[in-house]
Amino acid sequence: MLYEILGILMIVLLVAITSPYWLRTLNRLTVKTKDKRFFQLLRFMRSLHKPLGLSLALIAILHGYLAWGSLRPHTGMLAFLGFAVTATLGGIYYKTKNKKVFRAHKTMAAVSIGLLLLHLLWPGALWYLFGI
Length: 132
Prior knowledge:
- By secondary structure, the chain is mainly alpha-helical.
- Helices cover 86% and strands 0% of the residues.
- It contains five helices and no strands.
- Helix 1 packs antiparallel against helix 2 and helix 2 (36-68) packs across helix 3.
- The protein is globular, with a radius of gyration of 16 Å.
- The mean pLDDT is 91.
């Protein structure tokens, strides 16, 4: 089904979007390379961060619509809302360069990934817990 392919594509996009952060962290904690090619890769991945984030949001809407036939309350909708808030905070940071907003953006990204894991591991959680 197309919605399954879109779901897998979204996970690939999420890995690419978050890669500048976790690659830099892994390098700092383990390898500690100073190779300029590594830093060029990080710069390239950062340049993809915004367009891939927008793509992720659009694909998420399409994925949910194709899976359910409509947009309705589901753990996927929670994950989408989390990523929408993350993207909004990222946009605010881009315009203001406020460090508190950037911290909120990173925190919300972690929360969104947690919501995505909930969606992947327990998609019926809202129905089970709240009857939605």
